[in-house]
Amino acid sequence: MSIASDTRPTRKGFRFDRWAPLLLLGGAFSIYVAVAIATGQTQYLTFDNLIAILGRSIALGITAIGQTFVILVASIDLSVASLISATAVLASVVMDGSPAMILPAVLAAIALGGIVGLANGLVIIGLKVNPLIATLGMSLIIQGCLSAFVSNFAGEVPSAFQVFAYGEVGPFPFALLFLAALAVLAWGVLRFTKFGSDMYAVGGNEEAARFAGIKTGRIVILSHIICSVCASIAGLYLASRLRSGAPWIGSDGVYDLESIAVVVIGGTILAGGRGGIWGTMAGMLIFSLIDSVFNIAGVDSYAKQVLRGVIIVAAVAFYAINSKRIVA
Amino acid sequence: MTAPMIAMNGITKSFPGVRALSDVSFDVRAGEVQALVGENGAGKSTLIKILSGVYHADAGEVHMNGEAVHFAHPVESLRAGIAVIYQEFSLLPERSVAQNLFLGREPRTRLGLIDTSRMRAEAREVLSLFAAAGHIDPDSLVGSLNVATQQVVEIAKAVSTGARVVVMDEPTAALNETECEELFATVDTLRNRGVAIIYITHRMREIARLADRVTVLKDGEVAASFDTLPSPDAIVRAMVGRDIEDFFAPKAKPDEIGDPVLTVRGAGNDVLRDIDLDIRAGEIVALAGIQGAGRVALAMALFGEAPFATGDVTLAGEAVSFRSARAAIAGGIGLLPGDRKSEGLVLMQSVRDNGMLTSRAFAPLWTSDQRNDNADTTRMDALLDQMEIRAASYEQDIRALSGGNQQKAIVARWLSMRPKLLIFIEPTRGIDVNSKAGIYHLMRDLAREGAGILMISSDLPEVIGVADRVLVMQSGRIVAEFPHDASEQDIMHAATAETEVAA
């Protein structure tokens, strides 16, 4: 018996941890507006500019959706950044400027993601390797193979495929709508399917899940496949945006650690079993708003990095103090 | 007489070096409660694990409804209708009651999606079977329910899977008196529905309240098997193989009680109010009350973990105000937590290291055991010897020891600090009868040597048997005080009665 169990009242109505990401998002948005007004740069407050801010974090958002799946089952994936580079290069090389090769390239990229995710899952479940180590190893393997073959931009993305990154539907970039659709799909999977329910069970209490007859290993493997496929979609997006693939784009974007940070800021706990997609989306928005604030305020890029670090830690501490539970 | 739902015949099971069960036969019929009692290590858990398919018997057979069954895995026994409710719940605190009830077998719509409205309705239906669960909202999070209610959810889950045999492993270990009553009512409901119940417990009162039949295990063998409810004495005799004399230690004689060790006046914080408390040297004071009454909060306030915001505390004549556990320990307070595994022990370290935990925390960072008392392992070994801890060696991992021996190691830890006040929280939870007596005598010895002892216990016979004085708490206040010969009824009444709340 701890003091918490002896004195904790039975709460029902408002749950702080469920709304915390929204609170943080509101805070970040207020700061953004305040800084824009204070520096007199009200042109940053237009609709177009807000859309542009969102547009800069598409790749991170797609990756973070996948990362949410593995973190919910109490796993983690450090191989997403290398996989993003690998799929971008693969797609760009397969297409090599030919519109006819778009479909094979996309399929190849997604297949690569599926294979990497399956391998990650099998190593974690079958060989019982800690997911941190398993996916770190995978990351090194992918990056090593990639660097052995290419050292610079390779291949070329035909203009037809650049629609993915540059196309627009009405006032919205196509990629932004794609991200929104992906988020809705992921939410539906977590909320309404048995697979989603099983994921929360496996992450929350693996043994309870197994005793309830859930095939826990399969759930973890499937989550890893989804995560890696999301990363390969992010790779396709980046290839489309950069018009070619290069072996450093994933690691340059720090997509591995940033996607984890976004998920955690979104209220999904690293121990698994609690969290969701909308938190992750809020986390992504918080990240891009912060970046925009720095840009408007003209913060130098090294200071920017320090501040981002401080903000990540502060956000998680904010949750931990308010919910009186271990968060991350 | 109906045929047994479960019959286990001639079960024998050995582990390397130990014979855990030899030729144990045991049965339970539909609509009855078969109590399974025995000391820790008597083989109760092993027997249950064989029944549920976690272990496989070396010899013997398990029959269910007259047919031989062989469960290779707990999931198989669950499918066959045997549900084991362990002390550590298998519920997901972050998911709703309905989601937990239907975990792994959620009702689906035609599209293959989870049918949440049907799940909610069926959850409500299952919960309504239990008087204690009628008010539970299927949408509330399990983590927001109290322990007793979680247990009802766990039992409801077993029932909703169609369990015909329910095994409960010391289900009241974490419950207070009123919650126990709720649980007993739930067990009655199960029995009336024709479920066969195997009920593992140490507490005689629960056996008297619930059991139809009793089987006593001792050293892996059936020591006695009663087809009608036997007297508690008969059960105890079968459990320990002799009568327990002096189960509780004698109370303090007037001349053994000295000057106040601890005095608290008008203390409070956000949970506690108007706390006045005196504990004298040589005296054991028990704090009784229901869960949430503030007993643990009071212990944590004294121990500096969740300090008092107002009021005065005097320890051995000096005014003190501890703001951290470290300060309280340095001042002479020791605390034995209620949840040994999570709050008291470093399970993967040795018995000796666990004993040294606190004293080492007060030793200088760079020191050797020759130069500093706090790092002296020979002194600790002497204390461990004095506690008569049964371990292969003090180098052994402490998790291999029985609950009673683990508790003694924690007592040794505090003795090395020569405390003036020792706080015991649920000192005998999960400890077998023989070791309980050992702990009670140890507490009395510590008091005789001049320590003041504060004990928090949810086991009323223990409160009455051990304490020289009983304080009852309710809603963060001390509302009543009883001498050592108070009755359970008086204490219960004081703990649950509506009191006038002064403005």
Structural class of chain A: mainly alpha
CATH topology of the largest domain in chain B: Rossmann fold
The helical percent of chain B reads: 25-40%
Strand content of chain B: 15-25%
Write the CATH homologous superfamily of the largest domain in chain B: P-loop containing nucleotide triphosphate hydrolases
Q: Shape of chain B, please?
A: globular
Please identify the oligomeric state: heterodimer
The domain count of chain B comes to: 3
From the spread of the alpha carbons, the general shape of chain A counts as: globular
Rounded mean pLDDT of chain A is 89
Order of helices and strands of chain A: HHHHHHHHEEHHHHHHHH
Unreliable stretches of chain B: none
- Spatial ordering of strands, largest sheet of chain B: 6-7-8-3-9-10
How many strands, what sense, and barrel or not for the largest sheet of chain B? 6 strands, mixed
Helical proportion of chain A, percent range: over 70%
The pLDDT mean of chain B sits at: 86
Query: How widely separated are the two ends of chain A?
Result: 23 Å
Q: What do these coordinates show?
A:
The complex is a heterodimer of chains A (328) and B (503). With 328 residues, chain A is mainly alpha-helical. Chain A is globular, with a radius of gyration of 20 Å. In chain A, 73% of the residues lie in helices and 1% in strands. Chain A is built from 16 helices and two strands. In chain A, helix 2 packs parallel to helix 15 (277-297) and helix 10 (194-204) crosses helix 12. The two termini of chain A are 23 Å apart. Chain A has a two-stranded antiparallel sheet. Chain A has helices spanning 3-7, 16-38, 47-55, 58-72, 80-95, 102-126, 131-149, 163-166, 174-192, 194-204, 206-211, 216-242, 249-252, 255-265, 277-297, 301-323, and strands at 168-169, 172-173. Chain B has 17 helices and 20 strands. In chain B, the strands form four sheets. Chain B has a six-stranded mixed beta sheet with strand order 6-7-8-3-9-10, with helices on both faces. Chain B has a six-stranded mixed beta sheet with strand order 16-17-18-13-19-20, with helices on both faces. Chain B has three domains: 4-240, Rossmann fold (3-Layer(aba) Sandwich), CATH 3.40.50.300; 244-332 and 419-503, Rossmann fold; 352-417, no CATH class. The A-B interface holds A 1-3, 5-7, 10-12, 15, 192-194, 197-198, 200-201, 204-205, 207-214, 273-274 and B 74-75, 78-79, 90-95, 99, 103-106, 108, 112-114, 116, 137, 140-141, 144-147, 174, 271, 291-292, 294-297, 300, 305-306, 337-339, 342-343, 425-426.
